[in-house]
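Entry:
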Amino acid sequence: MSSLRERLLNRPRPSGTCPVRIDDDTEARKEAGQASILLNLLDAQGESADQAAVRKAKARLKKAEAALKACYEFVTLRALPPDDFEALVDAHKPRPGTDDQQWDNETFPKAVFVACVESDLSADDWEHIWTSVLSNAERIELSNAAIRVNIRVPDSSLPKGWAQIEGSS
């Protein structure tokens, strides 16, 4: 077992993935929804459900989920070292007379995303994608994901109280 020192010193910077839709997912979403409903109906029957139908429904759902996932690419974002993130924020100061709060809302979102994205695409490729391919909503989602990974937001999927201090109640 590693010591606290070893674990902290060797801790990788946080990372996360963010889906980017590549293909139209309308039909895949529809099929996944229908397959999920069918499986839920069969599960609700409990022991009386036809087990062959349950297996078929599970296979259908698995296939539908794979088709849906194939409509997306998952972009990996890795947090910058904290000092680098602060320097990036400092390089994009809020503009006077605007709604900017912590940074320049026009330049910082793209800058933080490009600084954090891990891929084989160049900065020029990402510039083109950012300005000509992504929708405004996609740009917001990607920049928010990059900001979240950098500010190290706790994982909200962990159950409440999972890390209570030993000995306290």
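Residues 61 and 109 are 36 Å apart (CA to CA).
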